[in-house]
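Entry for the shared binder. Reason: the reviewer on the internal report wants the predicted structure included alongside the sequence.
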Amino acid sequence: MSDGTTHYAGCFDAGPKHYECDLQEIGRLRLTITDLRVKLEKKEWVGLTNEEFKQCSYDADGFTIDREVAMRAVESKLKEKNT
């Protein structure tokens, strides 16, 4: 169809009459892929500030926590900031 839409989802499987629908779907998918690539390339890594890093080393009461627990807290905070 010339208006940028297909007849119905998957209509290009219905035969040669739907070739244009297939081309339009491919075009839409290419644009989506390009947009996603651009977004991924622009995404910059966000690290922790010194204060955020220190906060990961202490519990809510201000006591130093186990190193493994602290590293998990750091990892969790980084995932939170970068996704």
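Summary line for the report: The mean pLDDT is 82.
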